[in-house]
Hints:
Elements: H1 8-14, H2 41-48, H3 63-76, E1 80-84, H4 87-96, E2 104-108, H5 113-120, H6 122-125, E3 129-133, H7 139-145, E4 150-156, H8 168-178, E5 182-185, H9 190-193, E6 203-207, E7 221-225, H10 252-256, H11 260-273, H12 279-289, H13 292-310, E8 316-320, H14 329-335, E9 343-348, H15 351-360, E10 366-367, E11 377-380, H16 391-396, E12 403-407, H17 413-425
Helix pairs in contact: 1-3, 3-12, 7-8, 13-17, 15-17
The protein binds pyridoxal-5'-phosphate.
Amino acid sequence: MSERAWAFETRQIHAGAIVDAEAGARVTPIYQSAGYVFDSFDDGAERFAGRSAQRAYSRNDNPTNVVAAQRIADLEGGIDGVLVASGQAAIAAALAALAQAGDHVLTTDRLYEGTREMMRGVLRRQGIAFEAVALGADEETWIAAVRPETRAIYAESIANPLGEVADLALLGRVSRRTGVPLVVDNTVATPFLCRPFEHGAAVVIHSTSKWLSGHGSVIGGAVVDGGTFDWSAAPERFPHLHTARPHGAPSFAERFGRAAYVAYLRSVVVLEQGPSFPATSAFLLLHGIETLSLRMERHVANALAVATALRSHPAVARLHYPGVDDGQAAVVARLLPDGAGSIVSIELAGGVEAARAFLDGLRLVSQMTHIGDVRTLAIHSGSTIHGKLEEAERRELGITPGLVRISVGLERAEDIVADLVQALEGVPA
Ligand SMILES: *Cc1c(COP(=O)(O)O)cnc(C)c1O
């Protein structure tokens, strides 16, 4: 084969794929096995010491999962990836491999509520401090917020649910100037629309439950290492990558260099904490990824159709879709030239009562928490995902009483729009 660089559409089908050695199966099989037989006594010891290319146990190493993780890493332009049990588990694992008690993490002030909840909950209790900087802050404001103990800058390429776009190029420059790795949750954009490593990210996170799978049948998460960050530039910041391993084995930085982070993630964090990804889920995830580009093109077209139909509807006080009437057109053109995803959120002028009438009036669209499905889904944020917050906190986050998030699916655009519009007709003025 020549050295031709295959296009995204080709790699989403072939990257990382293996032909099963036993039967020659073309589709990556489900290796539904807890463990792998050692060749001998000595081979077992070699596998446990990480000195053998052969695997030991499916908790952190399963062949089906490795194919799916390598495919996601390839599409993102990273060097390697690890699958974990959910998007939440991906965030927890990614941060566990960077920060420890006493450390500090900077985030944008617009994040998926599950992420915020974990950062303000379990992770803060474990001693990691989180501090939010306004998404639109300038470079010097970000630089000034970095402390000696800052171990990550954390952002979502397209924030869930209001579609604020993080200026990844700016955050990439902050990362380069401060030596603090940039971690990007790229769930809503997907690597088809945005590749954060091209803008200076060190680590990319996914909830694979969403568009990467696309069919809404499995929960999962992925962490991808860009191989771009120099973990040895300031070894005192990442001591776990630089201390010698048991029995005098070299440190992760010595042994794996630029891949030290993903090696630590797989062979320490996932091994010790055990957020394993089922091989059956990896099989389904792979089937989703194979059609990612086709689905994203249609998701974007359908989302634009919904945004166009609803932006001037009298019951809609405000519509959120990146680049549509929101002052984000320039950053969207720079970072998301092929489209800005398929979450459209609307603020109903009539508040909670309008949201209730609208959601209860839907016939085709499902009321459900989840995004990135082939089906169009809608949810009232204030009473569900953001339901535990005080009203003032919700307001600060832009979660107004009439806010409804719509994850635009792959049905015929006219049918989606017709259902949304007929439900709006029943909304009290
Ligand atoms: C859903 C979601 C998560 C969490 O993923 P799960 O697979 O549900 O655990 C994380 N980040 C974003 C942006 C999400 O939309």
